[in-house]
Amino acid sequence: MPEGPSIFILREQAAAFAGKTIARTEGNTSIDKARLVGQRVVSVRSWGKHFLLEFAGFALRVHFLLFGSYRINERKDAPVRLSLQFDDGELNLYACSVKFVEGPLQAAYDWKADVMSDSWDPRLALQRLRAQPETLACDALLDQTVFSGVGNIIKNEVLFRIRVHPLSTVGALPAAKLRELVEQARQYSFDFLEWKRQFQLKQHWLVHRCTVCPRCQVPLSKAHLGKTRRRSFYCEGCQKRYERPDLAAPPQ
């Protein structure tokens, strides 16, 4: 599933379509494709994992799910979900979810929650985290109402970077460590963006899909944790598990 920085790159690549008018559409989507014909693209935007094309009075929202992809001014050998064709180019979307968003985008999205937005508000993220003290750190980082755009790669790498075990509870984290989690969710997202642009992202993974801790030189643990059940890669040696005494399991 593409994470926020990957969608940010798509936004940059598709920016040339802003101001242009859709001449033709095709694809196996169930939405009303004819509605898009003749529409001028007002802006090309993104929010977290959502790619957005804004028109007058509505927008097109694209979510790439687990296996979605796109091609600009070329096609791949696969059924196209939605093809937007302009007089001098085309945007082709595959294996994704496409939906209309009615009304202005400013009213439809909480831009303060997008970790890559200029409107990102770390204080609001802290406030929302403190309101859910029993939430596990691995689930909190994937909460799109708090960290829009953060996905599983960023989750694993941030927790390793700040030395926090994924099964730590938010309410047990010291104030400084909670602030560090918020800061690094944004910082790592921009690091991800730069490495992705340089085609070097995987070379910088320290734990995600890795087998040995680069700090402790011991085998990493791997498990599907939390309510999200997403894969976590972590070190039992250097990532501390923070738990509130009142929430910890009783002794056996």
Overview of the structural elements:
This protein is of the alpha+beta class and 252 residues long. α1 packs across α6. It folds into 2 domains: 4-108, N-terminal domain of MutM-like DNA repair proteins, CATH 3.20.190.10; 112-234, Helicase, Ruva Protein, domain 3. Strands 1-6-7-5 form a 4-stranded antiparallel β-sheet, with no helix packed on it. The model is unreliable at 248-252 (pLDDT under 50). The longest helix is centred in the C-terminal third of the chain and has 23 residues, at 175-197. It starts with a helix and ends in an 18-residue tail after the last strand. Helix content is 24%, strand content 20%. It has 6 helices and 10 strands, in the order αββββββββαααααββ.
Strand percentage: 15-25%
| Count of helix runs | 6
**Low confidence ranges:** 248-252
Query: How many domains?
Result: 2
Q: What is the top-level CATH class of the largest domain?
A: Mainly Alpha
- How many strand elements? 10
- Structural class of the helix and strand makeup? alpha+beta
Helical fraction equals 10-25%
Residue-averaged pLDDT, rounded? 95
Q: Assign an overall shape.
A: elongated
CATH topology of the largest domain: Helicase, Ruva Protein, domain 3
